[in-house]
Each structure stands twice: as structure tokens, then as C-alpha cells.
Amino acid sequence: MSKYVRKEKSQRKHPVISSSSSIIKAPVNPAAIKGRPEWKGPGFVKKTARQPSGPALSSSASTGPHIQENRLPSELQQLLLNIFRTTFPICQDYETLKPMLTEIKKALDARDFERAFGSLDSMEVYAARWSPSRALCYAAVLAELCEEFGEETCIQILLKREPINTNRSSESSSNVARSANAVCFGGGAAEIMAFGALLRYLYPDSDMMTTQSVSVSGSTSPFSGLGSSPPSPLLDLHLVDAASWAAAISSLESGLTTPPTLSKYASASARANNAAFICPYTLKTSFQQCDILHADQDELGSMIGKQPALITLFFTLNDFLASNVAKTTAFFLKLSNAAPKNSLLLIIDNLDATSEIILGKDDQVKEKTAYPMHYLLDMVLTEKQISAAADQKPAWEKLLGDHSRHFRIPEVLKYPIGLENLKFQVYLYKKL
């Protein structure tokens, strides 16, 4: 039998890999897949984290608080604090005030406002302790408001940029400036001092105002040309609160419009330069004791008046919401009908947990949801969350919404009781 010879066509189909140095490498085994295979691959789309139910805060809340710009000079702020100190000399003895301050704080935490402000002494102690810091904060916000929203009607009136024609007689007419109108719901000691500081900031030359020749931005003040008749006030300030702040407000107004008492040893130059913080004719103040949650639309209309007004709620809305959400919502609806066109609504409130409201039925606790304060404001005022008819327009336009601001007290300021930095949220709406 002849020897078997392998033919070329019978050679091995695949070469034998004899060592790791061969030019033909074995395929690399894929790494073990972690997790379930159906969760990976080019067609997989990762699910985003589920967001909590309820309205979310805007980006301004996540980027951290904004520092409130303070345009008021330190000298002006110190003069304001001096008025607090002279009006309420009880602030000089802080140790004596501690027991009463403790009781007031307990009453405020329990939202027992009748006990907190039940006497004149308690109101003066509260004003001496907490109002100075708030007054400085409010004044800073108001000054920024005049700078940033000077084109708004009620701000233009305050800046005396919008005189109106009034027939003073049948034979002649002259330009007479109307007073700016401000209404502070929940207003007290801090509000009158804040607006007093704003007037001093806008019109620093009080001596010129007494001669009826104020010049603002190069224009002649409407005080001129009125002869010997007293000029119209720059600001008509109406304060409304459930507590009787009339005595404290009257004392502070006197401190704003009366030159400070000098020592009998004061120099002649000091006596010659001694002047009131603001001219008496620049500010007209009135106070009304009223629980506005129980006021009807006509009563609110009489408080605000017929011309565009700056309406404020400073550290008041939280208390309303904690008291009764339904009545607070009804108040805003009545306010929307009572406020004249082009009025401004300025709201400042704190940042603690009570700034959230709870909506839902009392007998269904599981359906209660906490909503940020600005959500209710937008829902009621601008109707963003209400399915309105196509031809129905919102009552207000939101001009400003900042959920977190910090106001820092200048370190150079001196006051017998420690001043506090404030954290707050601020919103501004315009009546359409």
C-alpha cells in the first residue's frame, strides 16, 4: 500500500495558536455586565430622579440668598437709630427689659397678639427692640424700589416727576403736585421710620423744602408757586393694624419732624445746624386700628384711596396665613378689586417654616400639602394656577420675586440693643 500524502485542500482550516507571541490574538472576553442587561445599551435612557409633588422654587432659591443692597448712607441710618433711642429711652437699660421681652417673644410665638401688644409699655418695648433693624431693612428695599421701578406711577409721584393740572380758581390754573400715597397693612413703628428714612434719602436738603424750593433731578419742585399756603406733603402715609399703635407712631413722627434736644453746653454752630430729620411738611401720617381680614371691599377702598398707591405687607402675611388661609385669600381678592390701576403691592416676609401654607381639608390629613408663600400669591394675584376664561386677564403683574435675601446691618451703627441682620423674601406686584 502506497504512503498517504495530504493534499493542500485538506490542510487545517484555522491555524494553531501555539504561543502568546503569535500575530493572531485571541479575542478579549468582554467584562462582566453589572446589573440587569436590559438596563444598559445604546437605546437606554436613564430616568431622572423623581421630583417631589407640589410647586418647586425658582432658580433664585437654589442659587443661594441675595444680599440686599443698602443705598442709604451710614450717617442717615445712625440718625434714624438716634430717633429710636430718644423716643424710647427705655432701650438704654436692656437688663430691665429682658423679662418683658421674654414674655412678648412667647406671646408672638403663640400668635397671641393681644397679649403681645396689650399695653403701651409692651408696644414701646417691642418697638425699641425689633423695629430699628426692620426699619433699616425696609428703607433699603424702598430705596432700591425707587431706583429700579422709578417709571411706575406711584413712584413717579413720590419722586415728583408727575405734576398734574388743577384749577385753583376759575381764572387761573397752576401745576400742583399731588402727594404720593402709601398704605401699610400691619404697619407700625418700623414702617413710619422706614418711609421717613426714604424721604430723607430722596430729599436730603430739608432746609430747602421748608422754603418750598426743592429741586429734584434738575426740575423745580411743585412746592413753588403756592404763595403762603402750606405745601402738599410729599407722602401721605396711612398705617393700618389690629393693635393700637397710634401713640407709638405719634411719638416717632414727632421725633422725625422735631429737631433733637441739645445739651445746654452745645456750641453756637451746633445749635445753628440743629434740624429735624425731615421737614414736617414732607410727611402726613394717619393710623387706623382695624383687622383687615374682616374688612370688606368698600373699607379697603376707603383706606387705599382713588389714586395709585404703594401698598405694603411687611412681616404680616405669614401671620395672616397661619391664622386663616381662606380669609387671607379673600382679602387679596377684595384688595384686587379695591386697589386703583397702577398701584404697587410690596410684600416682605421671613424665611422660616411658617412661610409655607397648608392647603387641604382638615378631615383629610393625607391630602394636605405645604406650598411656598409665593405660590399662593401667584395663584391668587396673577391667576397662573386658575383656569380662567380666554378673555379674562390677571388682576396683577409680578414685577419682582426673590425668595431669599439677606440684609446686613452696617457694623459702624451704634444702638443700645443689639441690631440683627434679617433674612427675608420680597415680592412686588403691579395692579393692571
From TrEMBL:
<feature type="compositionally biased region" description="Polar residues">
    <location>
        <begin position="56"/>
        <end position="65"/>
    </location>
</feature>
<feature type="region of interest" description="Disordered">
    <location>
        <begin position="1"/>
        <end position="68"/>
    </location>
</feature>
<dbReference type="Pfam" id="PF11312">
    <property type="entry name" value="Methyltransf_34"/>
</dbReference>
<protein>
    <submittedName>
        <fullName>Uncharacterized protein</fullName>
    </submittedName>
</protein>
<dbReference type="InterPro" id="IPR021463">
    <property type="entry name" value="Methyltransf_34"/>
</dbReference>
